[in-house]
Design brief:
Elements: H1 2-27, E1 29-36, H2 40-56, E2 60-67, H3 71-80, E3 87-91, H4 95-99, H5 122-126, E4 129-130, E5 133-134, E6 136-149, H6 150-155, H7 165-175, E7 182-185, H8 190-199, H9 216-232, E8 235-236, H10 246-251, E9 255-261, H11 264-271, E10 277-280, E11 292-300, H12 307-317, H13 320-327, H14 337-343, H15 352-357, E12 362-363, H16 370-385, H17 391-409
Parallel strand pairs: 1-2, 1-3, 7-8, 7-9, 11-12
Antiparallel strand pairs: 3-11, 4-5, 6-9, 6-10, 6-11
Helix pairs in contact: 8-9, 16-17
């Protein structure tokens, strides 16, 4: 008799548990998260972090969607059509425009003292502030650093990386035509050149958001690039050596030095395991340290139906625990100082120059209309680099055309 009762109780308990599970599943709130397509490693890691979040938050489900093409166009279209995700990636480059359009949820009211906002690197957090409101929390970042081939250096008797731009150009000349065809692999896009514009006191955009890179001080930094390419003939673009990126140029041994970001480290170690390389901070220009910083934040859609749950997701992903899981493998750098310290990236031989750069980096952000500024600069700067027109003429053309396009969009 006792056994029958025990079995009956077990069955009743099982059914109660099943109905409880069904009940909690049916009351679970689903948050839609969108991001662009990253590497397979990145996708796998994010899905794991999201699983951990769901395990700790049983009443919240995350529907993760990868937008594999034309990411920002898709997001903007969905925001207008009120079909955007609750939470999504936002690159610092695109942030000024979206923050000014009243379509993102300000996060100040959600941030508690326990969240420890002061733990974030200021340079990164500032990229997502607009009119005293915080609209995004940076999930990771990369600066740029000098990557150099140790065997190539040893072959010409160089033991230490260059520390000034003059020294860097001399190194490039010494290294050209030896183990490598060229000393340096140049990437002429504005995303890699803006800190050179700043080195002599210039700026890419003025306080009104218009292009302003064609004045004399701005041109001084860019002239260094042109002189190295045309006069020294010690640098090459990816198209000159038949490769698709700076990292590939370097990995294939076409160039002895490149300036790249953290993403190059896993790429080089996996794709070109035979190459022996080291990193260093970018050589100073005009006695000033300089680099770029690229960062991406999680932001909340102002139209999100479940804002408290959307915040739970953002705060987990950018909190200390979630961020450590996300950046622990080293393919991304943590935006929280405490996490970087815990993971030891400031002591990592390859990553420490990238971490050091965040304090003086130029954020990759060029006003509300970045495409107009970027596209015009890139087209005309390459033309000047190839000697098709003088640098000043090229930059004036780029500046005038960019500002014409910006005025038409305002």
């Amino acid at each position: 008799m006792g056994l029958i009762i025990a079995i009956a109780i077990t069955i009743i308990g099982y059914h109660n548990l099943q109905s409880l599970n069904k009940s909690s599943a049916s009351t679970a709130v689903t948050i839609k998260l969108s991001g662009w397509e990253g590497s397979r490693v990145e996708q796998k890691l994010l899905r794991q972090v999201l699983q951990d979040f769901e395990a700790q938050h049983p009443t919240i489900k995350v529907k993760y969607e990868v937008i594999s093409d034309q990411y920002m166009d898709v997001i903007k279209t969905r925001l207008v059509g009120e079909a955007a995700p609750d939470v999504f990636y936002l690159d610092a480059l695109e942030a000024p425009f979206l923050m000014s359009q009243n379509i993102l949820e300000p996060l100040n009211a959600y941030i508690t003292p326990e969240f420890d906002l002061a733990d974030f690197e200021n340079t990164l957090l500032d990229s997502f502030k607009y009119q005293n409101e915080i609209y995004g929390l940076p999930k990771d970042y990369s600066t740029l650093a000098l990557f150099y081939n140790k065997k190539a250096f040893a072959a010409v008797g160089l033991s230490n990386p260059p520390t000034t731009w003059d020294e860097f150009r001399k190194y490039s000349q010494q290294l050209t035509g030896k183990l490598n065809r060229y000393g340096f692999g140049e990437t002429p896009e504005l995303a890699r050149q803006a800190y050179k514009v700043k080195a002599f006191g210039g700026q890419v955009v003025d306080q009104n958001g218009y292009a302003s890179f064609a004045n004399e001080v701005a041109l001084q930094g860019l002239q260094l690039v042109v002189d190295q390419y045309q006069k020294d003939r010690s640098s090459a673009q990816k198209s000159d050596v038949g490769t698709s990126s700076g990292s590939e140029m370097f990995g294939q041994g076409k160039v002895a030095m490149v300036i790249e970001g953290n993403w190059a480290i896993p790429y080089l170690t996996e794709t070109f395991p035979q190459i022996e390389f080291a990193t260093a901070e970018i050589p100073t220009i005009n006695n000033k340290k300089g680099t770029m910083v690229f960062t991406v934040a999680y932001v909340m859609n102002k139209q999100a139906q479940h804002k408290a749950e959307a915040w739970e997701l953002i705060s987990y992903l950018t909190g200390k625990e979630g961020m450590q899981k996300w950046t622990g493998t080293g393919f991304a750098l943590p935006t929280r100082k405490s996490v970087a310290e815990k993971l030891g990236y400031d002591q990592d031989p390859l990553r420490s120059p990238l971490v050091a750069g965040v304090n003086y980096a130029t954020p990759w952000q060029v006003g509300k209309y970045p495409a107009a500024i970027m596209n015009n600069f890139d087209n005309q700067f390459v033309s000047a680099l190839l000697g098709q027109q003088p640098l000043k003429q090229a930059m004036l053309r780029a500046q005038n055309e960019a500002n014409k396009q910006i005025k038409a969009m305002e």
